Amino acid sequence: MKKRQRKKQAYKQYIRDIFEGYEKMVANQDLDRLEFRYLKEETVIYRDQEQQIHFLTRDQQ
Questions:
Q1: Interior CA angle at 43 toward 29 and 32, to 5°?
Q2: Would you state the torsion angle of the CA atoms of residues 28, 30, 33, 39, taken in this order, to the nearest 10 degrees?
Q3: Among residues 10, 13, 34, which one has the least CA distance to residue 22?
Q4: pLDDT digits over 7-39, tens only?
């Protein structure tokens, strides 16, 4: 039971980190890329040439 709760808390923190990273990118135009990892999942927040923010989530091999 405790292992499941720890995984759940870790995933919640991962999601919080992604949203906080997005807020940082909105506030700071100099940030071009942020990466977040959880178990076998990776989320990248990046800016394109037009300075728009995009999310890319993929499974790691």
A1: 20
A2: -40
A3: 34
A4: 999 999 999 999 999 999 999 999 999 999 998
